[in-house]
Every structure is written in C-alpha cells, then in structure tokens.
Design goal:
With 279 residues, the chain is an alpha/beta fold. The chain has 10 helices and 12 strands. The two termini are 16 Å apart. The relative contact order is 0.13.
C-alpha cells in the first residue's frame, strides 16, 4: 500500500520537489502533484521532482485541471479539455507520474448513455494524441464524481475504463459517499466497490488501485467540502482499512483531507493495525 498527500502540505514552505522529500521523511511513499488550476510546473522542476521521488521510493501521480469536461456542448470547450489533459500527460511523463486524475464531465441535461458516448469520443482523441507524441507511461485516471449532475459514477467510470486502453477507474471514496447520500458505513459497503471493479476489470484493478480519501460534508446535491479525518463527518476509514487488509488489495490512497500529510499518516497507521490483526 502507498499513502500520500494531494499536493504540498499547508505547513510546509517549499516547492513540489522539496515537498516530496519532506513527505518521504515523514514516512509516506506517494505524492499527487496538483495541477487543478492549470499546468504551470517548469520542465526543470519536474525533472528535479522525479529525481527526489525515485531516490526516496515515492510513487507520483498528478491531478489535472478542474475545468475539464469531456462532454462539453461547445467545440471550443472540448478543445480546451483535450489541451488541459494533454498538458497534464506531458508533465506527468517528465515527472514519472504513472497516472493523471480528472473528473470526466457533466450530463448537462443529457442521458447517461449519451454523455458516456461523448466522454469516450473525447478520451479516444486524447489517447490518439498521446500515442502520436510517444507518451506511453501515463494512464488516464477517471475519478468518481461527488455530485449527481456530474458524469462519473463508479459504474460509469468502470464501463469506460473497461472499453478504453490506458484508462483506470480512480475511486474517490468521499465522492461515492456523498453522491450516494452517505452510503459508505460498513465493511460490506466498501467491499462492494472493490468487488464491482474486480468483476468488470479483473484482479489487476484491485491489486494496483488508485484512490482518494477524506471525510466529507455533503447535502442532497452531493459533496460540499473535504473534511479532517476522525471528526464528526463520514465516511469512516477503519472499515476500508480492514477490507483492504483482509482481502489483500494493493494500491495507493491519496489524502484529500485539509490535513493532507497528517491524515495520510493516520490512515497508514490504521491500515497497519488492521493488517497486523489480520495476520
């Protein structure tokens, strides 16, 4: 299992490369580079970040810009989506990041089936461009979305990654919880996610999964805010830790809590306790 923060911890003062080394010194072994407001990292910084990550055994991933919509109505917005995804894949290739994460799109009044076709067409275009540019070490990570208006439920993303090469379903547990009205409460709820992935995508999907976790505040429309682990919110992390340990699943959990590295370490300790109890 790999654990790490979604970006530079708030209390750390330094650049991305330095933050990777810092989180490694804390005992973490994953780091997601945040490009949610655009890809602004210089090539030289990406090279330095990769060196530090490789030296410290840290697995890197990247989060693409928030304003991606693979099912946009206007051609100009589709072109912008493709540009943003491609910019992220290019810097990820330099970083040595194995996966880029993004929200696939929005229904915008259309059926899930129609939206899925549009998303797939856009992603096929992206994959074709990646092949042309020789970007071969980066996977597209389709993140489960947290609101009912957004395309990207677990089943929708699984279906897409089943039909497209070099794509993976990225499980954001907080988003699934909020979108489902607080559906993740016990071990069986978490096990259902892994079982659906394994049944459709094969054992590899649960032996090399990529995910996000935090507690979440939500309402009838879905997610509102990511929250600190172990306060008055949900979903609970302990049942997830037990499911992973009991079933031998392997992968990466990125903390999206406001306390990025602190809660990543807390989750790591809870998992290690569950694994010890399962021996």
């Amino acid at each position: 299992m790999r654990w790490g923060p979604a970006g530079i911890p708030m209390e750390f003062k330094g650049n991305t490369a330095e933050a990777i080394g810092y989180t490694a010194s804390e005992g973490l072994n994953a780091f997601e580079c945040e490009f949610v407001k655009g890809v602004k990292m210089r090539h030289e910084m990406a090279v330095e970040a990769r060196k530090i990550a490789e030296k410290n055994g840290v697995s890197l991933s990247a989060h693409a810009p928030y304003w991606i919509n693979c099912a946009a109505m206007e051609r100009a917005k589709i072109d912008a989506t493709i540009r943003n995804i491609m910019e992220t894949t290019r810097i990820a290739e330099v970083l040595g990041a194995r996966i880029i994460v993004f929200h696939p799109g929005f229904y915008m009044g259309r059926s899930p089936e129609e939206t899925a076709k549009l998303v797939k067409k856009t992603l096929e275009d992206v994959l074709g461009r990646m092949k042309q540019e020789g970007i071969k070490n980066v996977w597209l990570g389709l993140e489960t979305t947290g609101k009912g208006a957004q395309f990207g439920s677990l089943s929708e993303n699984i279906e897409l990654s089943h039909s497209l090469d070099r794509t993976r379903t990225v499980v954001d547990f907080a988003h699934i919880h909020a979108r489902g009205g607080g559906k993740l409460k016990k071990k069986g709820d978490y096990l259902g996610i892994f079982t659906e992935m394994e049944n459709k995508l094969g054992r590899e999907a649960v032996m090399n999964f990529h995910s996000h976790f935090s507690e979440v505040a939500w309402n009838e429309k879905g997610e509102r805010y990511h929250m600190i682990l172990g306060e008055q919110y949900s979903p609970p992390f302990k049942p997830l830790a037990e499911v992973i340990a009991e079933n031998g699943y392997e992968g990466t959990i990125i903390s999206e809590s406001p306390l990025l590295d602190v809660d990543a370490l807390k989750m790591k300790r809870m998992y290690e306790e569950a694994a010890k109890n399962n021996r």
